[in-house]
Write a structure and sequence with these properties.
Helix content is about 25%, strand content about 45%. The chain has about 140 residues and is α+β, with helices and mostly antiparallel strands. Helix 1 crosses helix 2.
Length: about 140
Amino acid sequence: MKISVESHVEAPVAAVWRAYTTPEDILRWNAASDDWHTTASTVDLREGGAFSSRMEAKDGSFGFDFAGTYTAVVPEQRIEFSFGDRSAVVEFVPAGHGVDVRVTFDAETENPVEMQRQGWQAILDNFARYVEARR
């Protein structure tokens, strides 16, 4: 089953792309809520390149790594990646004075679909707020 989330970002596509793909930026926006943060991020943005992010609860009670491999990269348009036995696509679609960022990913079986959708949407909304605040 595929799940899609989307957020509109009022910023030029180059700025949106850069914030989505730069480790220093990822550290600042990659969290679903204020009690979580990303403590490490690596990006080798090319087909076959690897990425990873370490996400942790700020109170230190829990953390996990999110890692995978880029399977396709079309600058400022599309990123495809695999993580474990799942895959995802991130699309950057010009819209109005900004960009619609759409993430479509394979659902996992451990958590309810709606919980997964809400978590990925929260991260994407946090991303949009981060990019727009930098303008």
